[in-house]
Amino acid sequence: MARPYRLALAEVTVSGGDNVYCWSFEALTCDATSGTQTLCCDMRLDKVEFLINGDCIQSIYNGNVNGKGISPSYTTYDRAGATYTTAKLRLNVALSDAPSSKLCFTLRRGICASLQDLCAGPDCLYTVAEDPGAGATCCPLESGKWW
Q1: Per-residue DSSP letters for 47-92?
Q2: Model-level pTM greater than 0.70?
Q3: Residue 143 forms beta bridges with which residues?
């Protein structure tokens, strides 16, 4: 399935002892002539959701997209006896603006100080997705090992 954009870690800095992470949106080839890939070719960049360690709720702060402040929302799911927690950040980035856009957030060192602490697994599972509803067709899963 085509994924028109994925996150590319662009910068890691330290502010007040906390780690600040910034990503750019990396464009991927989208083949509109392939039947299954057409679902993602024109998807909107409405949100990004990370699968996180449940102990890391409230660890993300100072989120922003292109300098505009955003706050995460956290959801915990129970599926087949297992618990999964996600952190969702609203992007609201137009496809035309994606190549020059940047997503940043800071992690509280007293809760989960690094991406390795935040992510629930050997790498970070995330999706850059459309909101569900009218016209929503794509929610591809990606992974990134940024440590």
Answers
A1: EEEEEE-GGGTT-EEEEEETTEEE--EEEEEEETTEEEEEEEEEEE
A2: yes
A3: 125
